[in-house]
Design a protein that fits this description.
Blueprint (H helix, E strand, L loop, with lengths): L1 H19 L8 H13 L3 H8 L1 H21 L3 H29 L5 H29 L4 H4 L1 H15 L13 H20 L7 H22 L15 H7 L2 H10 L1 H12 L4 H18 L3 H27 L9 H26 L8 H34 L6 H22 L8 H4 L1 H11 L7
Amino acid sequence: MQMLDSTVIATALPVMARSLHEDPIKLNLAITSYLLSLALFVPISGWIADRFGARSVFRSAIVWFTIGSALCGFSQSLPELVVARVLQGFGGAMMMPVGRLIVLKSVPKSDYVQAMSYLTVPSMLGPVIGPPLGGFIVTYYSWRWIFFINLPICVIGIVLITLFIPNLREERVPRLDLTGFVLTGIGLVGLVFGFESIGRGVLPNTAVAGMMIAGATCMGLYVIHARRVLQPIIDLALFRIHTFVVANFSGGGLYRIGNGGLSFMLALLLQLGLGLSPFVSGLFILTNAAGALTMKFTVNAIIRRFGFRSVLIVNGVICAGSVAACSLFGRTTPHAVIAIVLFMGGFFQSLQFTSLNALAYADIPTEVVSGASSLASMAQQLFNSLGVIVAAQILRVILALHGGTTLTARDISPAFAITGSVCLLAVFFLWSLERHAGAEVSGHRLAESSAVRAEPVALSD
């Protein structure tokens, strides 16, 4: 529900602007207000879940998100829509990390890989299914149904949560670090809004730079603050855990930047570059999602056999190649070849995301898993936003170098090679992982020991 909602609205913005009698550029506030609300409340999600119980918070988050969806559907003006989107963002900020927290606290570490492989599915399918679904709804129905379709999903979600999810909570919850919450909230809002505003022309460049500087300053002040308090809202001690840092920031962060704009660029290449209809291009992109779903049946065996380090390094190179390979697509490329490349790319990209998500929590102590989930969500929000921004900026620079005014295949194709290089750069950071990194989760060391015991012993004369 959340991943679909955050992508379908982009397709519907022009129609929504005409219906509300607003400039389409101004209506971009409907997207940025949601992202800002998400960034503001994500840091506090772990503390709220520990304080009030994960099931209660998760269920309430779905209700808040759906109420916001309904209000969006009933909105008659831009201010009403923005307020409704802020409410949605609050619900979304609780759903994403708290949902992951429930899994981490309910599943033994040995099952993290399989659990994370299922959690990766919505994040892979949302950007793929969202745009064509949004186009279908606004073409044949009212744009308001983009938000109303969340109502039945909400009812189903509440029933399933009530039946199957335990109300996990901590017995001792520290006082809320209000200062830390304010600093991280302002810091993330400044950075996310700054990133989202780059190159859009909505705000002056000085205002965008000022927001980003203010955001970075607040995050720096939070680092100083966190070192002076006993229980900060985000525990900086998590940065001492090498697997967590590599999976979420250095290697994982770079990979998310390189891969973040892939769906966005694929839609442009297939429609503007190759001249395919939105429906046909949507079917091609769905093959990418099909590859991601196929991976779920093999991920456990792959990671158990080779371990996180080997999988992330070798598969990272393959992923970089699959992104760069899209630059070779042309009007004469057989459609079967495009479908195969996208299918295989979806398989290996999903394997990379699943491995990163599982490795991130492999060495996290149980008592700090709430803070780790919030911090990981913050990092992913920033790097995913950067991915789309980097892709858009690359396209803008290439277009300027070619002296054109409208995007063509020769402008879009090189962008895949560049973003593929960013994915490849992430491999150098993944190389720093130890051989048996995350072995408790992957079972790789156990698999190796079993293989050694199974080898026949040669008897001497």
